[in-house]
Design goal:
The complex is a heterodimer of chains A (457) and B (593). Chain A is built from 13 helices and 19 strands. Chain A has 457 residues and is an alpha/beta fold. In chain A, strands 9-15-14-16-17-13-18-19 form an eight-stranded mixed β-sheet, sandwiched between helices. In chain A, strands 1-7-4-5-6-3-2 form a seven-stranded antiparallel β-sheet, with no helix packed on it. A two-stranded antiparallel ribbon of chain A has the order 8-10. In chain A, strand 2 and strand 3 form a beta hairpin. The longest helix of chain A has 25 residues. Chain A is elongated. Chain B has 593 residues and is of the alpha+beta class. Helices cover 35% and strands 22% of the residues of chain B. Chain B has 17 helices and 26 strands. In chain B, the strands form five sheets. In chain B, strands 8, 18, 19, 20, 21, 22, 23, 24, 25 and 26 form a ten-stranded mixed β-sheet that branches. In chain B, a hairpin with a 5-residue loop joins strand 15 and strand 16. In chain B, helix 5 crosses helix 6. The longest helix of chain B is centred in the last third of the chain and has 25 residues. Chain B is globular, with a radius of gyration of 28 Å. In chain B, 53% of the residues are buried. Classes of the chains: A alpha/beta (457), B alpha+beta (593). At the A-B interface, strand 5, helix 6, helix 7 and helix 10 of A face strand 1, helix 1, helix 4, helix 6 and helix 9 of B. Strand 5 of chain A pairs antiparallel with strand 1 of chain B, so a sheet runs across the interface.
Chain lengths: 457, 593
């Protein structure tokens, strides 16, 4: 359809209204040309008879009511995908910005994707070794899982994500490799640079496709960035049989962009000013992780979000936690004690862990050791609270042992060098060394047989 | 619908997300099912005025344009009721997902048109009525073995009655073949098949409602013993993420003594539905020896599927449940999660620009919730059989805060409240149901059943356990301030026994073959042993024995390990524990006298 409309009836922030338009479809992409000759893309978000409300991805700066030419594309937002996209860098809507020329697309895909049919999903079972004890031991990452990192400003979430990317392997004897799709939404320039450099230094950059929307890039573009990235991820995983690790950072910027756009549309806000459909929108992204029956690829997601004011009950981490299959929570206190990675294990969780570990996957005692460490570390909290009231000296001998256990647990099990790549046997070995600090009768989560086998030795 | 109605149509003029507006009154009815646009997306009329009609669309509206046509169907949004529902997995408006997968591949495409149930399969049918019989609404006319576990009873639709003019002989029939001809009271003749249609937002009629009198036995100790649930009752499981709502619902779906389970995954994770599908197909129901899937129907409207269908999914599931109740079965619905359903209401309400009440939720949230939970109950059906619909709804409170509107409104309409606790979950104490905030109003109603079927002392023992736990919780306040060492020995004993109750009784391992589901008899005897240990220890303490001496004996740890050490089928082994406790008592006295 080649009709071009001249002029707009109003411009309000990233939103413009076009009147007198014929046959505009909901969710259709339009191309707009301002008098500076710059082309921009927009999406129709509301249609009322001949009036269309359009969201402009690249921002409305420099547009005027009279001179803008608008052309309907006749289809929703699409991304041309191809295997060639690995090793390249794109802007937030999938246009190459690395100066290496255009991509010759293999096919065009609707970036909104479609819900995976639960019947055709395969339940994820194979664990991914990250080499990080706290994660492998206590909140194991499974291929096809979505496991976010809940962090705060100033915490080393980027470093942790980069370490996972560098070390992630599919067990010891597997030669399958991950390809990485990296989507940055509203991140600082140096964060994007950090990831680019890390990918380069570790020699994986030829397997990485980067989609970058920086903090000063248009806000509306941010809304489409994760969808574009996941479209490529799904294509590579389910049509090209690759294992894809998707890093999405920072989901907080994405949700805030949604709030900004929603309020300029005049929608009724729900909690903290976020639109009522925040849950559905987040779910539409996170649920694009998974494995499909009969396909040898997978999409694993590690979204990163910074919790505003470190508040885990804030709507963004809260709704995310309800959709994702667990979470890795970073903690400011641990970070203050220079423990890296500062993972607070108690609120952290991997829901798929139980089916991907144990005999045949890792080791038979894995689940029991994890449960016992969780349970003992929870008691450390009680002992610490008591010590802060009556003083450490007044504690019972058992409570003192717990304090000691807690310190060592944080130092040796949680804490590790950013370049330390531990295998699961090492991780479990440290776990048992720590448990041996406590009397045997305190270990009520472990089967007697396993205790006989591992506690004494 | 049997009679042919002229299909009404309308023209789209506006689209906003899942909401579509039509200009002018086209004669559509409220809640009528419509097809939108050339792809014929399924929608429902939710607002009518002389100037415009509002329609919610159950599928993604991308690509819909003004000027496109909306087709009426003349009937409200309904589900198809006939054999073939069990073992199946549907989306929120009863479209079979496995059929969709056959035609559409891995993704759910838009505008797919498939029959809800298999119309070609021939079912072995045994007719239970004969020519000349007078049948009224709800009467059973035929029996069909739907799965190994369940006989499907074909019934006369509730709004029909009359004399049977002719009837087919026993044999193999599809769900659309006529089984008999009915002469209606007004003289018209109508052929009945196995199939009925019923509007999802309307409760199926029953003869009368009974008060709760039988428990829904789940095999989960904290539920059966501390906070029991009645057949036909309502319960809510609120909890923040990671506290185990879904896990608890899975356990109840697997092990409860309901005849039929309807599992509604409403706005939840896709992988979870896959897990239910895989696990339930492999697991064997210990009571009947058949696969658990034989008594289960799944409704999966995952969080990334269209929001309007999420709103409808609860009603679809409920209507299926009521249909099986009408056959005389006890049906339990797991709704995971009702918060997602409430959020779908909120989202649609926002798109309709309605005035919000609390936290953006519409003001009718409470009335919708109450209408939903009131469809549960133990009923006498129109055909004289008894059946029940039990609703167990998970609630996902925002920020884990139980004061938010959905939890608070739900609390008003359910009688059983199983509150999940974050700190228990963090310590990996599962099920993480808090014994301090949970309650069950059914306890009094069910006391008589427990006395008769388990033991007269059951309720008394249960109350003793609860009292010990609440004493522990107030003692812990002191311990937190000054440490446990300074407590007198009798209080130390309470802490010690409470630990036995918590770890040995309340904590239950869903992955252990015996512990995952525990029969009532063993639950009772475990309580008995724990309380016996408490009585004996208390008399030692009152003789002046310090707690530290008592603790030297491994008896406390042994009692904690009962759940693993005593197999479910050998409860008589528990009597031996009393003897061990007696020996412990004598030993302590002997050595320290």
């Amino acid at each position: 359809m080649a009709i071009e409309y001249l002029g707009l009836s109003s411009i309000n922030g990233p939103m413009v209204v076009l009147e007198g338009v014929q046959g505009a479809a909901y969710d259709e992409i339009v191309e707009m040309t301002a008098n500076d000759g710059k082309k921009r893309l927009g999406r129709i978000i509301e249609v009322d008879e001949d009036r269309a409300v359009i969201q402009v991805f690249e921002g409305t700066e420099g547009m005027s009511l009279r001179s803008v030419h608008t052309r309907l594309s006749g289809h929703p937002m699409e991304l041309g995908v191809s295997e060639e996209m690995l090793g390249r860098t794109f802007n937030g809507i999938g246009i190459p910005i690395d100066g290496l020329g255009k991509i010759l697309p293999d096919k065009m895909l609707d970036v909104n994707g479609q819900p995976l049919n639960p019947v055709t999903r395969e339940y994820p079972r194979n664990y991914i070794r990250t080499g990080i004890s706290a994660i492998d031991g206590l909140m194991t990452l499974i291929r096809g899982q979505k496991l976010p990192i809940f962090s705060g400003s100033g915490l080393p979430h980027d470093q942790l994500a980069a370490q996972i990317v560098q070390q992630a392997s599919l067990g010891d004897d597997s030669d399958e490799e991950f390809a990485i799709v990296f989507a940055a939404m509203g991140v600082k320039h140096d964060v994007a640079e950090f990831f680019r450099r890390t990918f380069e230094e570790s020699g994986v950059s030829s397997h990485v496709a980067m989609f970058i929307n920086l903090a000063n890039d248009p806000v509306v573009e941010r809304l489409i960035t994760p969808k574009v990235a996941l479209t490529l991820a799904e294509y590579l995983a389910f049509e090209k049989n690759m294992h894809i690790l998707v890093i999405l950072t920072d989901m907080t910027s994405f949700a805030e962009a949604m709030r900004e756009v929603s309020s300029s549309k005049g929608e009724i806000p729900s909690r903290k000013g976020f639109p009522g459909y925040l849950y559905s929108e987040l779910a539409a992204l996170y649920e694009r992780a998974g494995i499909v029956q009969g396909v040898n690829g997978s999409v694993t997601q590690i979204p990163i979000l910074t919790m505003p004011n470190d508040d885990i009950t804030h709507p963004i981490p809260d709704l995310t936690g309800y959709i994702t299959e667990g979470q890795i929570v970073l903690d400011r206190t641990l970070n203050g004690q220079s423990i890296y990675p500062p993972i607070n294990v108690l609120p952290s969780l991997s829901r798929l862990m139980k089916d991907g570990i144990g005999e045949g996957y890792t080791r038979a005692d894995h689940q029991s050791v994890a449960n016992q460490l969780f349970s003992c570390y929870a008691k450390v909290g009680d002992a610490r609270a008591l010590a802060s009231v009556i003083g450490e000296d007044e504690l019972s001998p058992l409570d003192k042992k717990y304090l000691e256990f807690g310190r060592e647990f944080e130092k040796r099990f949680v804490g590790q060098d950013p370049h330390d790549n531990r295998n699961i046997i090492e991780t479990l070995k440290i776990g048992w060394e720590l448990l041996r600090m406590l009397p045997r009768e305190e270990l009520d989560r472990i089967d007697t047989k396993l205790l006989d086998q591992y506690y004494a030795s | 619908m049997t009679e042919q109605k002229a299909e009404k149509t309308g023209v789209i003029y506006g689209i906003n997300g899942p909401i579509v507006y039509l200009k002018e009154d086209t004669g559509f009815m409220m809640n009528e099912m419509v097809y939108v646009g050339p792809e014929r997306l399924v929608g429902e009329v939710i607002g009518l005025s002389s100037k415009r009609i509002t329609i919610q669309v159950y599928e993604e509206t991308t690509g819909i344009r003004p000027g496109e046509i909306v087709y009426g169907t003349g009937a409200p949004v309904s589900v198809t009721l006939a054999p073939g529902i069990l073992t199946n997995i549907f989306d929120g408006i009863e479209r079979p997902l496995s059929e969709i997968a056959k035609t559409g591949g891995a993704y759910i495409n838009r505008g797919v048109s498939v029959d809800s149930l298999d119309t070609t399969k021939k079912w072995t049918t045994h007719m239970t009525v004969k020519k000349g019989d007078y049948v009224s609404g709800g009467a059973i006319i035929a029996e069909v073995p739907e799965t190994q576990a369940i006989i499907h009873k074909v019934m006369v639709p509730p709004d029909k009655e009359g004399y049977i003019l002719d009837v087919v002989s026993d044999g193999e029939y599809t769900i659309n073949e006529p089984l008999l001809t009915l002469q209606l009271p007004d003289g018209r003749e109508e052929k009945l098949t196995m199939t009925q249609k019923w509007p999802i937002r309307q409760a199926r009629p029953t003869a009368r409602r009974f008060p709760a009198s039988q428990p829904l036995v789940t095999g989960q100790r904290i539920l059966d013993t501390l906070f029991p649930m009645a057949k036909g009752g309502t319960a809510a499981i609120p909890g923040g993420f990671g506290t185990g709502k879904t896990m608890t619902q899975h356990q109840i779906a697997k092990w409860s003594d309901a005849n039929i389970i309807i599992y509604i995954g409403c706005g939840e994770r896709g992988n979870e539905m896959t897990q239910v599908l895989e696990e339930f197909s492999e697991l064997i129901d210990p009571k009947t020896g058949n696969p658990l899937m034989d008594r289960t129907t799944l409704i999966a409207n995952t969080s990334n599927m269209p929001v309007a269908a999420r709103e409808a999914s609860l009603y679809s599931g409920l209507t299926l449940a009521e249909y099986y109740r009408d056959m005389g079965y006890h049906v339990a619905i797991m709704a995971d999660s009702t918060s997602r359903w409430a959020e779908a209401l909120r989202e649609l309400s926002g798109r309709l620009e309605e005035m919000p009440a609390e936290e953006g939720f519409p003001a009718y949230l409470a009335s919708k919730l109450s209408a939903f939970y009131e469809r549960a109950g133990m009923m006498q059906n129109l055909n004289g059989t008894d059946g029940s619909v039990t609703i167990i709804g998970a609630v996902s409170p925002q920020g884990g805060d139980f004061s938010e509107p959905v939890t608070q409104n739900t609390k008003r309409f359910v009688r059983c409240f199983w509150g999940l606790d974050k700190s228990l979950a963090y310590a990996r104490h599962f099920p993480a149901i808090s014994w301090l905030t949970s309650y069950s109003e059914y306890l009094n109603d069910l006391g008589a059943w427990y006395s008769e079927h388990v033991d007269r002392k059951f309720v008394d023992y249960r109350n003793q356990l609860v009292s010990l736990l609440s004493q522990e919780s107030s003692l812990m306040e002191i311990v937190k301030l000054i440490g446990g060492d300074v407590l007198p020995d009798d209080q130390k004993l309470i802490l010690e026994i409470a630990k036995v109750i918590r770890v040995g009784f309340l904590q239950q391992n869903a992955f252990h073959k015996d512990d995952t589901c525990v029969p009532m008899e063993k639950q009772f005897k475990m309580m008995e042993v724990i309380l016996y240990l408490y009585r004996k220890s208390r008399s030692l303490i009152s003789m002046g024995m310090p707690m530290s001496v008592l603790k030297e004996d491994p008896i406390f740890d042994k009692v904690i390990a009962i759940k693993y050490d005593v197999p479910n089928d050998r409860p008589e082994l528990l009597d031996d524990y009393k003897k061990q406790i007696d020996r412990f008592y004598d030993n302590v006295i002997e050595r320290n006298a």
